[in-house]
Amino acid sequence: MSTIKSVSKESRIFEPPAAFAQQARVSTREQYDALYRRSIDDPEGFWGDLASELHWFSKPTKIRQWDPPFAKWFEDGTTNLAYNCLDRHVAEGRGDRVALVWEGEPGETLTFTYAELSRQVQRFANGLLRAGVVEGDRVVIYMGMVPEAAIAMLACARIGAVHSVIFGGFAADAVRDRVLDAGATTILTQDGAWRRGKVVALKAQVDKALEQCPDVARTIVLRRTGNEITMKEGRDHEWTAVLEGVSDEHQAPALPAEHPLFILYTSGTTGKPKGVLHTTGGYMVGTYVTTKYVFDLRDDDVYWCTADVGWITGHSYIAYGPLTNGATVLMYEGAPNHPGLDRFWEIIAKHQVTIFYTAPTAIRAFIKWGDEHPSKHDLSSLRLLGTVGEPINPEAWMWYRRVIGGDRCPIIDTWWQTETGAIMMTPLPGAIPAKPGSCTLPFFGVSPKILREDGSEAETNEGGYLVIDQPWPSMLRTVWGNDERFRQGYFSRFPGKYFTGDGARRDEHGYFWVMGRVDDVVNVSGHRLGTAELESALVAHPTVAEAAVVARPDELTGQALVAFVTLKGGVTPSGELKKELADHVGNEIGKFARPASVRFADAVPKTRSGKIMRRLLAELAAGKEPAGDVTTLEDISVLAALRGDDE
Ligand code: PRX
Description:
With 647 residues, the protein is α/β, with parallel strands linked by helices. It is built from 20 helices and 30 strands. The protein has a seven-stranded mixed sheet with strand order 5-4-17-16-18-19-20, with helices on both faces. The two termini are 31 Å apart. Bound molecules: adenosine-5'-monophosphate-propyl ester.
């Protein structure tokens, strides 16, 4: 009763390609095992050594302190993250390397070397200081995917201001709530951002939000789209004016390792957003080391992570991890389907991208749009593919490998969270054989366990609650301004252990299979099932592009399953197909799991980070009007369309 029944039957295994393994940092399972063992047996030695690859103004001697739920890392060290991202490379003779290649949605390209990016960040840091921003101030960054967003983050980190990036797709109310919770004094924004050829009017949303945020002293506004905006005298400043006459030399201050670095509000599917707090030293080391080993960067790599800087993936794996490693990072401003459905593949061919990191929700969209779009372009520059954000359905994984990776590129399925700051479980691409749908093994220093309700450890292949029982450098330090919520939310279910909120199982090879959030667990006839596995079975059917499975109350079975299904382009919906799909799940997983009803939908409601909002679907499936928070919903019109659908 207490555990989560796992029904996934995936058994395919893909070894790391020999050519890839040969030049990888970690190229055998034995090497991984040895490093992993040291990281667990001697965390202080392990992390102390890796930390010393970076620049410290004073080297840490206290590596780790653990007073659950509070961790401190490198506490007596002082450093500067922006210095490590930029100045360090320039000082070591890599100033001419390309740091950032930026492609705007309309098609323009900008390139910044490490030396140039460093100068721009120093200049903006000076601009912020002159405008009155001081160390410790919270600065909200509400921008699109422009280079200035990255420059702004780095400039804040440089002067010790705490940034809080708010995804540009959020509207005024969500901005207001986050600004108030963070106690921000400064907002960095744009007139508008480009999205699918249209202007998303960011400054107008800021104006609305600020009607209720009396403590915001200033905004700094970048002109990008040229739409008309109102500027409030004394409060709103032009980006160019802030930089006028400002020097591009700024000496990076030595900041304590535990100095707050940023607050990022989580994309939770329920309740009020939480301000996850990350601090400087541990986050720096965690993102640096994971990027180095997981993406196994080479000098000639062009690395592209498609996330928005408004999400943790954008923080850790567009900005801080790759830049501390001196990588060449591609940043794209716009939508994957503008002007055509092949925009991503065109970008890969144009910039000769070698590493591509995206989300399962995007992969399912690519599948829906059809193979002809990637097939039009030469993707042979790619050598490594990654995914993050949700469990990836094995069929989507296979498609990714075949169509995008040409059956040649390893795939890293990286499990982690806003709270973990850095990748926690993933195959190392040169060393660990992959199984489609599994994030495989823990990264160095990560100690995951699968527990039953009573706290005892689950057996092999028995689903349970995923916890981490040792601290790691990039873990969240608290929920901003709310230690109690931090303790309650993460450390109360299993005292002293970090509870991830995810269900998972560990298979006979020790591989982890994350089944999704435990609040996405359904209970049918006494079987607790992870909805992700049921959805995976549906997506394996040739007609299905995407599926969301929820439960509604049922007198007979406790809960009955309702499947919302988006069909692939060109497939005609019919009553017969509904039955066929329900049967398909019954056959794949077991009769008890056969959905009681299948509904076709053009799209399913998702959070802005691409997670299916099952709470809303469950309310619809139960015949209720969705209540509660919908501010994280990406496209409100999806809800209206679903309401109208009959069974
Ligand atoms: O449920 C897991 C899922 O996404 C959650 C974390 O979401 P967020 O904080 O928005 O961060 C997303 C980007 C790191 C996790 O609790 N998740 C993320 N990656 C995976 C995953 N589930 C399965 N496999 C993954 N690779």
